[in-house]
Amino acid sequence: MNVDSVPTLTWVLVALAVLALAALVTFVVLRLRRRGAAPLPPSSSGTGAGSGREGDGEGAVGTLPRPGGPGDGATVEPATPQFQVPETVGSRLVRLRSRLARSGALGQALLSVLGRDHLDEAAWEELEETLLQADLGIDPTTALLAELRTRIRVDGTKDPVAIREVLRELLLAQVDPSMDRTIASAPVLGADGEPHPATILMVGVNGTGKTTTVGKLARLLVAEDKDVVLGAADTFRAAAADQLATWGARVGVDVVRSEKDGADPASVAHDAVEAGFRSGADVVIIDTAGRLQNKAGLMDELGKIVRVASRPAPIAESLLVLDATTGQNGLRQARVFAEVAHLTGIVLTKLDGSAKGGIVVAVQRELGIPVKLVGLGEGPDDLAPFDPESFVDALLG
Hints:
The protein has 13 helices and 13 strands. The protein is of the alpha/beta class.
């Protein structure tokens, strides 16, 4: 070997060693940053950096001591500093209107009958059957068809376009656009005279997608620049608390959960409300166990959660999550929950099959409370405020 080449070879080896060390350090840093961030379905609006809000957490992901109170060792799981940017409300509405419009099976069935040259009794019976199969309910169906027959006879029209406009007007009246469908997210004055976060209680039976809906609602509120705390009061399923922690981590939201399975759900609800108050959050969303409406013990437990969560300040919203495809069974569920949880609104999931869209009218008429949110897909941002006009237009294609 040439002696003059030895210094050059030494420098080459030193440079390679430095590059290898730099690559190793970069790999370790990335692994530490990603620890604890389980993936959600990809958001249609992509991911982005944190909002920089207080409480987003800049340290290592772990658990913080619970805020105090009589809970069963509840802890706050801080949000990861890297989280997704939720889709805006306006963008959701545009996309969800498009989805509803593509599935207007009810409207197609109605208009195919109303477009005939002559509407005999057989045609009217067919219309009645179509509306009943869409879960509109007997009384709303009877009222709508009676008014439609009168309008057609008085106007003397056979024009399908004109008849469609009359049907749209009558359906819209049944959905009732005058109902207040806003989600209460403003601070509530507490018994101590201080402003407290708006508490939203989520209830429903097993299989309706309640925990997932809680996560999606958190994303919706974060998109409206609200500071949110989640309470994992479904203590019978460890997977439910883990699932909620994943949703919260991806939008920079802290989750209060118990350290042990089977803990008292009311205690976790208490700790979540207290944590929200101490951190200055805008909203606290409490997820409860999916329960069968005919199980007296479970419903009594829900009543206890309601009493405990409402002690510091009145509960702002009590939302029942219903599967839109359950039809009249969903109405039976709604009646029992209304007695226990003092419902203020309905969240309808799986409404993408709008052939069953009549359930919107039926449940509102039964309970006298509005459908406030609808879910139309599996994506993390497939939850949007319910808009009556867009819904009726989608039904009619």
